[in-house]
Amino acid sequence: MDQKANAVRREISDDAVIEGFCDPRFSAVVDAFERNFAEQGEVGASVCLSHQGETVVDLWGGLADAESKVPWQSDTISIVFSSTKGATALCAHILAARGALDLTAPVTDVWPEFGRHGKDKATVRMMLDHSAAVPALRQPMKEAGYCDWDYMVARLEDEEPFWEPGTRNGYHGLTFGWTVGELVRRASGKSLGQFFANEVAGPLGLDFWIGLPEEREPRVATMLPYRFGPDDPMTPFMDAVLTDPESIPALFLLNSGGFIQGGAHTREARAAEIGAANGMTNARGLAGMYAPLANGGSHNGQRLVDTDTLTKMSQVSMATHQDATLMIPTRFGPGFMMSMDNRHLGPDQSAVLGRRAFGHVGAGGSIGLADPDCGLSLGYTMNRMGAGLLLNARGQALVDAAYRSLGYASDKGGVWSN
């Protein structure tokens, strides 16, 4: 595609513009991106789409720092929180494709110490689909404990399961970084961040980091946290946080060593390898990571996984009417979120995707996904967080525009279909 001929530049305020390029077939994505700034309070953001291996949309705009009015540039990056989980899961699947991990095998085959206190029946797949029964830590985490890999691994080894592994699921919001990350480390002999850099980001040419090098710091956007107000609906998750300090939602949100309370935005935290929550990238990095997974497992001559592994990645392996952490219905594949339609419960609790699409959202609204049915990969990042841990109106609007551009007709059945 001729990027110059399809260049985009739209002024959105006195201080900011949208720039990039867009295949005319996907002009609805540009319009949705612009509306996010005009109507949804977007501050700075990026969106990127690849279709059948070709980048068809690459847009960025707004402000990387709202206070200083620094513009969001082509190479601006930001923390994508739980969108990092897709990168960590991909590392595990690459190792499974090579025979170094077996999703059906007990975790103790690779990590014997994890089996303490009745966790010996947990399998690798359970670690990936949030049914391994350690969604949080009961005893207080030390300050910035998330920066200490060995400390977090030891804490998970000694944690008693919250249920019999495999019998239900509860989103492992922070602990996923080590339940899966330690499997990657033991199976590969490399740290999670090193493995991702060597086997994914490097070969695909992605500006995507789990453990950000210090020289990349000047390109990091400043995040604006969401502030809950009196008019916000009281969700079951927030009700549990506020009324039951021993509940899984409260332990997840409040016992994070300060990570969720702002510690994520320190240099120490960005340098650490937190495979659940501290990936640093932009939309181009997310869409680029998922591009091979939307196109049979390979992209631009780089094969990440075989087709059988890819098929496993796109299957639901755990679904429930009430996730023990999020307190809503959830659907997970092994390491990835599948389409979740909870619109009847209110805003910010859904991620409506294609029938076989898989990916991951990040707190505040980022998302990366692959849809093997139509060869679509998509990434969206932003620096003004929305409510909730799933998609808000801004990210969903971009996903919806992408599917409509491909001729999909309706999402009324809980997935985009044509």
**Unreliable residue stretches:** none
Give the overall pLDDT as a whole number: 97
Q: What's the order of the H and E elements?
A: EEHEEEEHHHHHHHHHEHEEHEEEEEH
Shape: globular
| Ends distance | 26 Å
Number of domains: 2
| Oligomeric state as shown | single chain
- What's the CATH H-level homologous superfamily of the largest domain? DD-peptidase/beta-lactamase superfamily
Provide the gyration radius in Å. 20 Å
Give the beta-strand count. Answer: 14
What's the level 1 CATH class of the largest domain? Alpha Beta
CATH topology of the largest domain: Beta-lactamase
β-strand amount:
15-25%
* Helix vs. strand class: alpha+beta
The helix tally amounts to 13
Fraction in helix: 25-40%
Second-tier CATH architecture of the largest domain: 3-Layer(aba) Sandwich
Structure description:
The chain is of the alpha+beta class and 418 residues long. Strand 1 and strand 2 form a beta hairpin. Strands 1, 2, 3, 4, 5, 12, 13 and 14 form an eight-stranded antiparallel β-sheet that branches. The mean pLDDT is 97. The two termini are 26 Å apart. 28% of the residues lie in helices and 15% in strands.
Give the gist of this structure.
The protein has 418 residues and is α+β, with helices and mostly antiparallel strands. The protein contains 13 helices and 14 strands.
